[in-house]
Amino acid sequence: MNRILDEDMLDIIKQPVNWEKLENKTVMITGASGMVGSYFVRTLLKLNEVRNMNVRVICVARNIKKIGEDILENGAVKVLSHDVTKPFEYADDIDYIIHAASPASPLIMKDSPVDTIAANVLGTYYTLELAREKNVDGYMFISSREIYGQPDENQEFFTEDTYGFVDPLDPRSCYPEGKKAAETMCASYRAQYGLNVKAARLAHTYGPGMSIYDGRVQADFLKNVLFNEDIVMKSEGLAVRTYTYIADAAAGMFLILLNGTDIAYNIGDEKAKISIRGLAELLVKITPERGLSVRLDIPQDGTKGCAPFTLGILDSSKLRALGWEPENTIEQGFKRTIEYLEIEKEAGRL
Is 0.85 surpassed by the pTM of this model? Predict the structure, then answer.
């Protein structure tokens, strides 16, 4: 396993989470080959290694070849090749389900909006049905900051009960509207069947396991740095976002699943607020040995399917009340990500 991953897992299991709830339990994770899903899987396996928790893990992915070898070779893991937009047939017991399968690439959202909304809406329905059938202890849906849409004028923060505008007739809304419908479905299963459901609303999250080819600006910038290329901006980069390192986000998600009592929680590091251009300049700044620069080259035909929302920072005070506190500054997180990518590149895994 990449050294950065191992260090992150050790940091996560030190967090004030009610880990004992997972002892001798079976956890199903959809999207197990993605960044978020793989962090869930590896954290559970690290719990087994360090604390002898005897957690059994079911990894669900459409393409199991994308799951890391360290996961596939672990005896506590069962792998299930499955498309979450189809019904599940699974005979054995399940205690927790984490639904993390969803396209996160702007390129996929632009070119395959039907697939994007289906993974969230149908995937959530079928995993909730499985959760009801198995009478699970807990279910968590991985949601997004995008459900909030564009805030009102002069509104800086979103709490869990404030919402902005999303255009339902814009095909790019396949992602936020799919997430919103999935959350309503979770709330409906709680109301009708008493299911213990949670929704973790992630702000922009980055780190080991993310694809540097998925079209998101942080991915594009990291790819530039990794291959010693100047960062070329396709816009003025004025939109302000927060960026949360995946290990900190994962710790927050486990707190929500095992310590939380409400349905929805925001996860975003308000201290890591930065414009897109500021992020590009930061990445150049923390890698001075590469001698890179930031340049503007704005196309005339618009964007590549990026989210239209320019403002709106997640207020994570409700999650902080559970004991969450990000350990990595934006500089530290991106330095760790670059180090991880360099190790992967050297090993021929990129």
Answer: yes
Cα–Cα distances in angstroms (integers) from residue 58 to residues 153, 249, 296, in the given order: 45, 21, 45
Phi, psi of 96 (to 5 degrees): -140, 145
d(CA 31, CA 139) in angstroms, rounded, equals 14
Rounded-to-integer distance, Cα 139 and Cα 30, Å: 12
Q: Which alpha helices (H) appear in 159-287, and where do they start and end?
A: 174-193, 217-226, 246-259, 276-285
Nearest to 21 by CA among 45, 50, 49, 55: 55
pLDDT digit string (tens) for the chain, length 350 residues:
899 999 999 999 999 999 999 999 999 999 999 999 999 999 999 999 999 999 999 999 999 999 999 999 999 999 999 999 999 999 999 999 999 999 888 888 999 999 999 999 999 999 999 999 999 999 999 999 999 998 887 788 999 999 999 999 999 999 999 999 999 999 999 999 999 999 999 999 999 999 999 888 999 999 999 999 999 998 889 888 999 999 999 999 999 999 999 999 999 999 999 999 999 999 999 999 999 999 998 877 654 455 655 567 999 999 999 999 999 999 999 999 999 999 999 998 88
Helical packing angle, 276-285 and 217-226, nearest 10°: 20
b/e per residue 190-217 (b: at least 16 CB within 10 A): beeeebbbbbbbbbbbbbbbbbbebbbb
Q: How would you class 92 by CB atoms within 10 Å of its CB: exposed for 0-12, middle for 13-18, buried for 19 or more?
A: exposed
Alpha-carbon distance of 9 to 171, in angstroms, equals 37
Farthest CA pair distance, the chain: 59
Please give the Cα distance from 221 to 312 (Å, whole number).
22
> For the packed helices 217-226 and 330-346, what is the interaxial angle rounded to 10 degrees?
60
